Prior knowledge:
Number of strands: 8
Number of helices: 2
Distance between the termini: 34 Å
Strand content: 35-45%
Largest sheet: 4 strands, mixed
Structural class: alpha/beta
Amino acid sequence: MVKKLLHTRMRVNDLAATVKFYQEALGLTLSRQHTSPRGAQLAFLQTPNSDEEIEICQMPPGAEPVKVQPDLMHLAFEVEDMAAFTAELQAKGFALSDGPTQTGSGSVIAFIDAPEGYEVELIQRAK
């Protein structure tokens, strides 16, 4: 049996742009960055109140470019106040791609697109 989830890896074409998005739009912090033994550039992002990290990987030059398929996968983050968070995103120059939408459970969800076409879900849980 596994002990715990450590990280989720996402492959990208532009490591710097992706890291910048997660830092500026969502407030994640870069915990470490290095080159893997296979030559890939890796950056690990820390999410507040979580032990798990997001690993962003850019393969070495000459590798097949990333082509993200619609609805292939997404990351979901909880926000305290969707209206305030959305206003903060807009002030930073980021726009939602969908929502906010209230769900049947009373939660509010919205989406923002990260570089490379990955979708990020924002969730304000029902109170």
